[in-house]
C-alpha cells in the first residue's frame, strides 16, 4: 500500500466480533451526556451544549467514530461533538437552507431538478454531524418511511416519467437493514424510466463495518447503483474504511465522495489534497467539495467563500484532475447548485479571450468567427434531449 490506513483504536474490553458488527455499533452508540462523559473529558462549552442545545439537533455517534476523535479542537471531535456556539447568533441561520420543504411534492421526495429526485427513506443517522444541512428533518427518529407514505412516494416517482435517477438519502439510508433496502431497490428497479440509483451515506465513514459482503451483493444485484460517500478529513480513512471502499469498488459499485469545507476542521489545501489523493488511490472519485450551507447552529463551522476559493485555486495545477472535487455552493432557498470556479480569464474583447494560467502563463484564445459555428446532425438524440429538459413540467 502506498498510503498507511491505520486500524481504529478499539478499546481492549470490547470483543473484535462486536466492534466489527454494524448493528452492535448502532446499538451501542453514544447519545446522552452520560454516554459522552464515559468516553470524553468534556469542556464546559461542550457540556453546556448538551444541557441547553439538545432541542436544536439530536446528538449521536458510533463508538467506532468516537474512537477516532481526540481532544477539544481536534477535527473529528468537532464534527460529532455539540458546542455552545450552536445556540449562539450567527450571520445567517436557516432551518431549511435548501428550500426542501417547498420542493416536496410527495412524502419524503424532494424534486428540484427535472431528471432526478431525492428519496429520504429514513431520518436516522448513526452520527449526527453538527454541520448537517437537513436539520428540519434529520434526527427526529421517525425511522423508516411508513408504508402508506412509501407507496405515495413510489407512485409519484412512477407517474413522473422524466425522472431518470433516484438518490436515496435521509438521514442515512444505510442505517436501514438489508431486507428493507433490497425491497426499496427492487421497487425502484421495477420502474421502467429509472436509469441510475444513488445512495448517499456517511456509513463508510462513521460505521464502515456496515459495508458487508451481503450488502454489496444487494447493491450489485440492482446495478447501476452509485454510492456517494462523505469523507471530510484524511484521519477518517482507517483500515476499516479503506476495506469498505475497496469491497464496494471491487464489486462494481462506483464510489464518489462529497466533502464539505468546515472551518477549523479541514479548510486547508494540505488536508484537502491528502484526503482526495488517498480516496483516489482507493478508486473513489472526489466529486463535490461543498461550501457549508447556512443551516441553523453552524455559523462556527462555515468557511467564507473567499477562503474556499483560495483552497480550490491552490490545488489547481498540483492535484490530478481525477482527485479534484468540484467546489460548489447550494444557493439558499432551493436555487440549486452553483459551481465556484477560480477565474483564469483576465480580459475579453471580440473573439479574443485573455487568460493567466495556474502558474502565471499569459496567453490568448481566439475563437473562430460566429458565422462559422454550425450545429451537428442530431438524429433521434434531439427527442431524448427535449424530453429530458421538460421532464418535470411535462408531468406536473
Ligand atoms: C444536489 C442535489 C441533487 C444532485 O445533484 P448532482 O449535481 O446531480 O449531484 C439532486 N437533487 C437535489 C434536491 C439536490 O440538492
Ligand atoms: S449523515 Fe448526513 S443527514 Fe446525517 S447528520 Fe450527517 S450530514 Fe446530516
UniProtKB/TrEMBL annotation:
Database matches in PROSITE patterns: RADICAL_SAM (PS51918)
Protein origin, superkingdom: Bacteria
Cofactor: [4Fe-4S] cluster; pyridoxal 5'-phosphate
UniProt-recorded name of the protein: KamA family radical SAM protein
Record keywords: 4Fe-4S, Iron, Iron-sulfur, Isomerase, Metal-binding, Pyridoxal phosphate, S-adenosyl-L-methionine
Family the UniProt entry places it in: Belongs to the radical SAM superfamily. KamA family.
Residue ranges annotated for the Radical SAM core domain, each copy included: 111-337
InterPro entries: Aldolase_TIM (IPR013785), LAM_C_dom (IPR025895), Lys_aminomutase/Glu_NH3_mut (IPR003739), rSAM (IPR007197), rSAM_sf (IPR058240)
Pfam families: LAM_C, Radical_SAM
Gene3D superfamilies: 6.10.140.1170, Aldolase class I
Amino acid at each position: 500500500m502506498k498510503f498507511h490506513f491505520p486500524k481504529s483504536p478499539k478499546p481492549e474490553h470490547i470483543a473484535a466480533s462486536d466492534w466489527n458488527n454494524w448493528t452492535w455499533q448502532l446499538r451501542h452508540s453514544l447519545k446522552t451526556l452520560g454516554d459522552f462523559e464515559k468516553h470524553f473529558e468534556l469542556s464546559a462549552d461542550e457540556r453546556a451544549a448538551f444541557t441547553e442545545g439538545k432541542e436544536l439537533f439530536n446528538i449521536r455517534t458510533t463508538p467506532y467514530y468516537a474512537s477516532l476523535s481526540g481532544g477539544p479542537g481536534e477535527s473529528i471531535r468537532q464534527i460529532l461533538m455539540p458546542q455552545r456556539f450552536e445556540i449562539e447568533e450567527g450571520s445567517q441561520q436557516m432551518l431549511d437552507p435548501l428550500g426542501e420543504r417547498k420542493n416536496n411534492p410527495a412524502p419524503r421526495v424532494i424534486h428540484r431538478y427535472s431528471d432526478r429526485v431525492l428519496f429520504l427513506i429514513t431520518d436516522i443517522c448513526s452520527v449526527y454531524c453538527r454541520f448537517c444541512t437537513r436539520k428540519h428533518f434529520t434526527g427526529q427518529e421517525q425511522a423508516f418511511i411508513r408504508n402508506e407514505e412509501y407507496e405515495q412516494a413510489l407512485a409519484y416517482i412512477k407517474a413522473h416519467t422524466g425522472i431518470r435517477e433516484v438518490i436515496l438519502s435521509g438521514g442515512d439510508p444505510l442505517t436501514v437493514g438489508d431486507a428493507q433496502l433490497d425491497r426499496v431497490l427492487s421497487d425502484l428497479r421495477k420502474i421502467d424510466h429509472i436509469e441510475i440509483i444513488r445512495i448517499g451515506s456517511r456509513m463508510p465513514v462513521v460505521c464502515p463495518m456496515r459495508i458487508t459482503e451481503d450488502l454489496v451483493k444487494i447493491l450489485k444485484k440492482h446495478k447501476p447503483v452509485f454510492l456517494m460517500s462523505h469523507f471530510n478529513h484524511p484521519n477518517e480513512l482507517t483500515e476499516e474504511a479503506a476495506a469498505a471502499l475497496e469491497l464496494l469498488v471491487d464489486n462494481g459499485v462506483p464510489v464518489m465522495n462529497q466533502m464539505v469545507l468546515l472551518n477549523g476542521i479541514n479548510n486547508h489545501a494540505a488536508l484537502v489534497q491528502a484526503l482526495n489523493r488517498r480516496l483516489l488511490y482507493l478508486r473513489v472519485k472526489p466529486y463535490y467539495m461543498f461550501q457549508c450551507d447556512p443551516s441553523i447552529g453552524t455559523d462556527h463551522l462555515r468557511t467564507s467563500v473567499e477562503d474556499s476559493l483560495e483552497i480550490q485555486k491552490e490545488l489547481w495545477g498540483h492535484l490530478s484532475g481525477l482527485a479534484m472535487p468540484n467546489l460548489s455552493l447550494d444557493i439558499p432557498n432551493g436555487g440549486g447548485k452553483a459551481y465556484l470556479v477560480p477565474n483564469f480569464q483576465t480580459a475579453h474583447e471580440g473573439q479574443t479571450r485573455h487568460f493567466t494560467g495556474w502558474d502565471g502563463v499569459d496567453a490568448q484564445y481566439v475563437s473562430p468567427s460566429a458565422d462559422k459555428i454550425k450545429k451537428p446532425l442530431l438524429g433521434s438524440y434531439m427527442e431524448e434531449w427535449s424530453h429530458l429538459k421538460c421532464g418535470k413540467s411535462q408531468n406536473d
